Amino acid sequence: MYIAQLSLSLHPHFKIFIRMKIFKYTVLLAAMLLTSFWMHAQQENINTANYDGTVVVLTKKDFLEKVYNYEKNKDRFVYEGTLPCIVDFYADWCGPCKTVEPILKELAKQYKGKVMIYKVNIDNERALASAFGIQSIPTYFFIPVKGAPQYMMGALPRDTFVKVIETVLLK
Questions:
Q1: Residues 82-97: pLDDT tens digits?
Q2: Is 143 a residue whose pLDDT tops 90?
Q3: Are 82 and 48 in contact, with CB atoms under 8 Å apart?
Q4: CATH says 56-169 is which class?
């Protein structure tokens, strides 16, 4: 009732001005909401889709966000991603790691959008390697979306990677 009384006593030009302001701010709010939803969707896509089919290097922070937050979930493994993944624990000086690197790059392209392939440099991320007891490199974690992760050590041939991807990660 008060608003109606107020609007009756206002000058007609001022009423139009107020209506235009209300419309402007309503459109602005709608645009902000849509932009927020779009940006959230884009962030989800960045986290889950392997757009260019590359192997992604993870820091501890990235690992906690994208793979497994072992600081928060100490009692059980909770995968943070939406696509299955392979995590390669490696070092730049490791000969077998260098041998497998082209295979992982090829698999990242082949399984683009289906499987994420991550790398963790144990020299740069000592705390992360220690948390998982990595004593031999390369070590690979194969993590399905649901279920327990599996791991393998050593320079694996391409056929082994494909077999594990097809039977464990994409089943």
A1: 999 999 999 999 999 9
A2: yes
A3: yes
A4: alpha beta
> What is the identity of the amino acid at 73?
N
- Active-site residue identified among 97, 108, 120, 122: 97
Backbone angles phi, psi at 56, to 5 degrees: -105, 125
- The answer to whether residue 85 is catalytic is no
Catalytic option among 94, 117, 129, 137: 94
Tens digits of residue pLDDT in 89-133? 999 999 999 999 999 999 999 999 999 999 999 999 999 999 999
pLDDT score for 33:
65
